[in-house]
Amino acid sequence: MDFFFYPSSVALFGSFREGAIAREILRNIVEGGFEGKIIAVNPRGGTVEVAGKTFEVRDRLDEAVDLAIIAVPARFVPSLIDEIGPLIKGAVVISAGFSEVGNDELERELIEKAKKHKVRIIGPNCAGIFGVHARFFGSFEVRVKPGGLALISQSGAFGGAALAMGNEEGIGFSAFVSYGNAADLNESDFLEYFADDENTKAIALYVEGVRDGRRFLNALRYASRKKPVIVLKAGKSVSGAKAAASHTGSLAGSYEIYRAAFRQAGAIEVEEMEELFDAAKAFEMYPKAGRRVAVITNSGGPGVLATDRLEKLGLEMAGLSEKTVGELRSFLPPQCSVKNPIDLIADADYERYKRTIETVCKDENVDSLLVICVPPIFVPSREVARAILDANCNKPVIVNFMAGELVRDGVELLEKEGIKNFPTPERAARALHWLSLRS
Questions:
Q1: Which of 78, 189, 283, 394 is deepest in the core (most CB within 10 A)?
Q2: 119, 85 in Cβ contact below 8 A?
Q3: SMART domains in the record, alphabetically (predicted)?
Q4: Whole-angstrom distance, CA of residue 315 vs CA of residue 65
Q5: pLDDT of residue 249
Q6: Residue 15 and residue 40: Cα distance in Å, rounded?
C-alpha cells in the first residue's frame, strides 16, 4: 500500500470552487510540500490557483497515476472508478452517501468496479490520508509534523480532532488514515501495513466496530508483536454501540469481546483521547520500561500522588540499595528524603537534580525514573530541564513539570530535545504503566 502513503503522483476529482472539499485537499497537498505530480480533474475544465500555484483542470484523467482522491457526488463514484480504473492503483473516496445512510447497493457497485480493475479503495465516507514522511497531505484535516505515530481512525471527525490535539501535544506523525465505511481496505489492512512501515514507531487506532473479528484479532496480534498498538474503542455502551452503527455502518458488537481481544493480542487500550496521546508520547521516546520506578521530586505532595498512582497501576516503587542511599546522603542536604520517592526539597537546583538522577539511574533495583519539578520562582524551570538533559542515564526518564507558566521555558527546552512533558503526576505515572506493558 505504499502508493497510498508514499505516492509519486495523485489526481484529484471534484469541484475546485472556493471552499469545496477537493480544492481544500489540493491546497493541503500543495502547501504541505508534496513533490510528486498533481492533476486536478473536473469535466468543466478551467484553472484553479492555490498557494501561489496555478493548475489546469483537466476534463478527464488521461495518464496513469498512483492515486486518485475522489470528492464527487456518491452516485457518480462507481462509474468514475470504472472509467479511471486502468490508470490508478488506489482511490481515496471522500464522498459520503453510501452504506452509512443505507445505500448499500451503491457501495457494492463501487467495490465491484474497483475489483474489476484491481484498484484498492479507502472509504467511502472518509476524511482522507496523510503520508507525512512523503510530505503528502491528501486530506482536508490540519497538517502535522513528521514523527513516528501512525493514526488509524474509523471516524474522520475524530481523526481531525486527534491530529489537532497531537499538534498541541507535540506529537510527530508518520501517517494518518480515515477509512470511513471500510468497504474495501479496513483497520486490519492498515494495522498490518503500519506494522511493517519503517517510519512508524507506534500505531494508534480509533475503532467503533469491525466486521471480521477473527482477521482483526490476527492483524492486531501481528502489529502488537512488532510495535506498540494503542487502541481507543468507541461504542462501549448499548447506546454508544447503536450510535456507532449509524455513524459508519459498522457492527459495534459487545465491548467485552473487544476488550478480551485487545488483551489477547497485546494491544494497549486507553479510555480517552488524552490517554491516547500520553501513550503515544511515551512510546515516541521509549520502546518499553520495567516495573520498578524511582520518583525524584522537589515537592512532597506531587511525589505522593505519583506514588499512589504508580502502585494503583500495578507498578513498584523501587527499593534503593544501601549504596545508592549512602551516595545520596553524601551530597544532598539533611532535610532531603532519600527514600523512594526522593524529595530534593523546593530549592533543588541543576546540580542537585543532575547528581540525583545519575546516582539513582545506576541502581540495579531501578528500571525507570519519574522526575517531578514544581519550581519556585527563584529556580528557573529551564535549569532543571537542562539537568535532566545533561544527566548521564541510560534508563527511561518520564518527566512531570507542573505549574503552567512557571515551567513553560523548561518544557520547551525538553521538547526541543525530544523529551515530552506530562503535566500531572498521574499522567506521568500512566505513561510508565503503558511502557511497562511492553517489557
A1: 283
A2: yes
A3: CoA_binding
A4: 52
A5: 46
A6: 9
Domain 1-123 has CATH 3.10.310.10: no
Query: What's the pLDDT at 225?
Result: 96
Distance CA 420, CA 401 (A): 10
251 pLDDT exceeds 70?
Answer: no
**pLDDT above 70 (res 248):** no
Question: Phi, psi at residue 208, to the nearest 5°?
Answer: -100, -40
Are 233 and 258 spatial neighbours (Cβ–Cβ below 8 Å)? yes
Domains 1-123 and 287-436 share a fold: yes
- Report pLDDT for 238: 59
Neighbour count for residue 260 (Cβ, 10 Å): 12
59 Rama class: left (phi>0) / alpha (psi -120 to 50) / beta: alpha
Tell the residue number behind the cell numbers 452516485, with chain if given: 75
Strand partners, 144: none
C-alpha neighbours within 13 Å on the C-beta side of residue 322: 0
How does pLDDT run across 111-140, given as a tens digit for each residue? 999 999 999 999 999 999 999 999 999 999
d(CA 45, CA 230): 44
pLDDT at 74: 97
Question: Does the domain spanning 141-285 belong to CATH 3.40.50.261?
Answer: yes
Q: By 3-state DSSP, what share of the chain in percent is helix, strand and coil, each rounded to 5? A: 45, 20, 35
Which pLDDT score, from 0 to 100, does residue 57 have?
97
Residue 40, classified by CB atoms within 10 Å of its CB into exposed (0-12), middle (13-18) or buried (19+), is: buried
Distance CA 339, CA 320 (A): 7
What SS3 class is residue 320? coil
Q: Give the separation between CA 157 and CA 388, rounded to whole angstroms.
A: 38
Q: Is the pLDDT of residue 69 over 80?
A: yes
Q: Quick check: pTM over 0.85?
A: yes
Q: At a CB cut-off of 8 Å and minimum separation 6, what does 293 contact?
A: 310, 315, 316, 317, 318, 366, 367, 368, 369, 370, 432
pLDDT > 70 in the chain, percent: 96
pLDDT score of 247 more than 90 = no
Contacts 24+ apart (CB under 8 A), 333-341: 337/300, 340/294, 340/295, 341/294, 341/295, 341/296, 341/297, 341/303, 341/304, 341/306, 341/307, 341/317
pLDDT at 34 over 90: yes
Domain spans of the chain, in order of start: 1-123, 141-285, 287-436
C-alpha span between 17 and 37 (Å, rounded): 21
Q: How many residues does the chain have?
A: 439
